[in-house]
Amino acid sequence: MEYRELGKTGLMVSRLGLGGLPLQRIDxxxxxxxxxxxxxxxxxxxxxxxAYTVSEALLGEGLLGIRDKFILATKSMARTKAEMExxxxxxxxxxxxxxxxxxxxxxxxxxxxxxxxxxGGALEVLMEAKEAGKIGHIGVTAHSxxxxxxxxxxxxxxxxxxxYNIVENQGEEYIRACQEKNxxxxxxxxxxxxxxxxxxxxxxxxLANPNVTVAIPGMASVEEVAENTAAANxxxxxxxxxKEKAAAxxxxxxxxxxxxxxxxxxxxxxxxISSVFLFAGYLRRYDLAGWSKDRYDLQPxxxxxxxxxxxxxxxxPYQLPIREMLKKAxxxxxxxxx
Length: 338
Ligand code: SF4
Ligand code: SF4
Prior knowledge:
Blueprint: E1 3-5, E2 12-14, E3 17-19, H1 28-41, E4 45-47, H2 55-62, E5 71-76, H3 81-94, E6 100-105, H4 110-117, H5 122-131, E7 135-141, H6 145-152, E8 159-163, H7 172-181, E9 184-188, H8 199-207, E10 214-215, H9 222-232, H10 240-253, H11 273-286, H12 289-297, H13 311-315, H14 322-334
Helix pairs in contact: 1-2, 1-9, 3-5, 6-7, 8-9, 11-12, 11-14
The protein binds iron/sulfur cluster (2 copies).
One iron/sulfur cluster binds at residues 258-264, 273-274, 316, 318, 320, 322.
């Protein structure tokens, strides 16, 4: 496993890390197994979030006795000092540790990042926690290039996390700037929110960029750990065939696709937006008509219930035309004959 310095934190991290979001699907024993396999493979970086429901707590259980083998990162959507103070303490308790290596401000927009830095903002308590030894370093995660650009100029930002994968390379110039400014760059959404099925290609594509410090695919099974660690351990450049496959994925997905981040939720009338797009995507890309239709039919609220209030579109970090996309998804799914 290759290791890199995580920017100005000075921490030596494996170039492959664990994205802790899908741990929500498994239990503490399963999490422990994954951690043991990661340890054997030399992976030492774990990312989770206050927002990933039970993920922090499962990691806390799983890390008992092996906490010191990992560099632990989490993040919070708190923007004010009081909220962040509470969240840091909850994270420490959930993770059953007295020290978190990296604490990140989770996906702020530009105005929220200003709030974080204003008097009474979350940054005050992050600095205090750093001083007190509760956290080691401070980072920012972002989905918008504008926030990425803003974070690059902030002296307290030691790491930046941003989506980077075969179909989302709009941050490449900023990722290069991270390297120049000695800011650790953490690549999130390596599989574009589950839209890229070839995990091995996805990991190899990201790690081929020397400016990426660490990529953090979500892993919830030992099979995924095996596939991703094998890919990360393969130092050979991408083959012609792999480049062709990557180009085909770009052509297929384009730019307007749902990353299943669920920031658009809740829908005013209860449509499960990301699930509708998942079913429509499987119908289009993998010809899984019966599978997609069956699952769509089980949805308590179908996409045609949309009242076009637009609330979801304001929350989507990718500015997707959700209303139009839902209409098309509904049409395609309803047209399936069983
Ligand atoms: S525009 Fe439609 S999908 Fe979006 S929140 Fe409103 S009702 Fe829900
Ligand atoms: S529609 Fe946008 S906000 Fe909602 S899950 Fe998809 S990418 Fe995320």
